[in-house]
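User: Round two. Same drill as before: sequence, then structure, for each protein.

Assistant: Same drill it is. First protein:
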Amino acid sequence: MPQSSRTPLYMEQYFPMAKNAPPQNKTKKTLPLTTARRLSIRTQGLDNHTPVSSGKEGTTQVVERLGYVQIDTIAVIERAHDHILWNHHPGFTSDMLGELLAIDRRVFEYWAHAAAYVPMADYRYYLPRMATAHNWRRESLFRKENKKLVKEVYERIRHEGAMASADFDYQDAKRGTWWDWKPAKRALEVLFNTGELMVSARHRFQRVYDLPERVVPGHVNTQAATPDEAARHFASRALSTLGLASLPQIRKLYANHGARKALDDLLEADEAVAVQIENQEAPYYALTATLNNTPRQQKNHLHLLSPFDNITIDRDRLLDLFDFHYRIECYTPAPKRQYGYFTLPILWNGSFIGRLDPKAERKSQTFLVRNIVFEPGFKDYDALLPALAKALHRFAAFNGCTSIRVERTKPGNFKTPLNRILKNN
């Protein structure tokens, strides 16, 4: 199972969800659903109207804007974290992220709602979460049963420098059989969860671990935030990232158990505003600064989004705000799949209008579109198909492919014209 699909224990055990009673609101602003959608898209930087700098600086800006970029191991196309950053930063290349992690130290890895790259500037806000990891059931049990192993793994890295789990893949008489790879790898994960080790780099996507004092730059504030400070920071991060969100959505994004009090504090300080969205029963919230900059309608923007993109990751929110029912089917047995193995939501002019099932066949450099399914009622094909062809050419190139083949579409009569446009462009 990809590491990002694992649910961290703190989400269920050590960050218990409080009752969902909404915070008390002094004021409430009513928004049309179309405006709410625009705000969500604009704050994500997906409206083609939110420029970023070139190169690594632009990549850093995107990570800081989004608050986190989810890591995933599925490689049927470029991995999710690279795909996400490319959508939000058209000039992105995967080496930029590797350098920001291993050289520039502008990002680090830890748990948001899942394994993620997060801004190094947020380090102090993750320290309370790391402190609680000592009490996570699996971590505490493993450490109790493997006290010597955990200490020896830590000490070896402290004395010998950064190491990957593969560096522990041996046995000999002197060291003992406890140097087996699997328990050593688990020890590394425990030490990572508790913050005693950090990921200093990735080699061929494998984590390399080192001590925090050798990873965190000297200028970064390492004074642990209080739990209340961290909760308020993550609540503000969630609203800044999402544009607007309900209390359960804020909690979900960062597994934020203190979200309700944090939101009350933001409302009291007039940093946030309660929002009633058209046709939505649950109250939503937005940063005051977000509502003071309501975006105009943007046209002719199309994105083939990752299933783990920040705007798509909360499937319930996606349904509520965009009326788009989406589930990833890579864990569904093939005969039961409705759309495909790893379908990408298609965002077009503020609406989700379909999904596309891709595969990068790297040996032949062919980008295979196994299936495209448009939403019922969508009719704007004359405008969409040229934009979709252009997006497919860009995405294929990002995946190292030089040709594109569309196998199926639904409705089926759009396969031939799409292939014709692709060939002529």
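Second protein:
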Amino acid sequence: MKIKNLPKKLILQHVEILDPLKEKVFKGNVLLVNGKIAEVGKFDQPADAKSIDCKGLTLTHGFCDLHVHFREPGDEDKETLESGSMAALSGGFTRVCTMPNTNPPIDSPESVNFIIEKSKEYPIHIHPIGAVTKGQKGKEISEMGLMNQAGAVAFSDDGLPIQNGLIMRKALEYSKMLNVPVINHAEDDCLRCDGVMNEGIISNRLGLPGNPSISESTMVFRDLKLADMTGAKLHVPHVSTAASVEHIKEMKSSYDKISAEVTPHHLFFNDEALLNYNTNLKVAPPIRNNLSRKALIKGIKQGVIDCIATDHAPHSLHEKETTFDCASFGMIGLESCFGIVKRLLVNEEGLSLVNLIKLLTTAPRKIMGFNSDLFEVGAEAELVLFNPVEKWTFKESNVFSKSINSPFYEKELIGKVRYTISKGKIAEIL
């Protein structure tokens, strides 16, 4: 990947422009001046502008990921804000929201400010999500108002589900006043117990303790009801079960402050992929059976699932190169995301490319209240150029994260990010 400063004037020529906000696809040029959108479509090209011939490429909004773990502060051996930014940039992401389960957690205005100030020097926009409870211990509500003033865009104890219903209710009530979402890792600790994979035929065959799908769906149901009662915004992360999709669908029919995400790995794999004990497939919530996988795809097509998020979760080698029961939960996903979902949802499942791009751009921005009109004249350039038909094999050399815990190596992907433009920089992904 080569990263350069944008020239004062840059024309992206002969490009197919996909506008996910207006749901339009058209051919034309884009002029950037001082890192901002100057003209889109057909126009007289300034003689002093540099240009890139983008024939065969599609231009759209930079991708936005609502769910990443960059591990800083505390576990910089796995990932840093800088290395996470590089991983995001290579995958076409210009904006991400970082989860607070760092060491120490992001549970104070000072820690929120640390993320914001340090990330200013990196080439993507990084938005901290604050912890719901102090120390993520699930007992005492954090300083949500002060963290929001400092720049926290949402609140979550991700990785540590909020088990206490009263704490969850209070969090939703506070978040309503702040007009930001609460994101709860939806798993009932008592039901998931010591489960390390989906409970079912495969877990029995492997002799591994199972995590039943009801551990998620019961928590999703509780949170949906609490959101409805309080009038707050609730975002359901990494939905993995058919029952959860149905609960969300039913609640959305009467309450409009609900949103939900799904990850590429829950869309791509079912629990049969774990038959060789691949620890990179050990995630929370677990990879479910094919019935649930198909339900997630159907949920996207029906509009029940609002967006795609990677849940990018770096881990060191020693945390993954161990027995399955002892391995850490999580996988990286920023670099491989687009090629996976383009292949699966568009090429195999018939979703339109426009709808896929909405799942990666306007939808997550709307959930977080970010600007969604990135082709507006004067808007800061947050753009991605990709080849929609290019087939490529995902390899370790494509990874810019400090960690390599991906199950997608040697998988054929369709759709390749070639350029990402963000914060006055242009990255060419080779």
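The first helix runs from residue 81 to 90.

User: Perfect.
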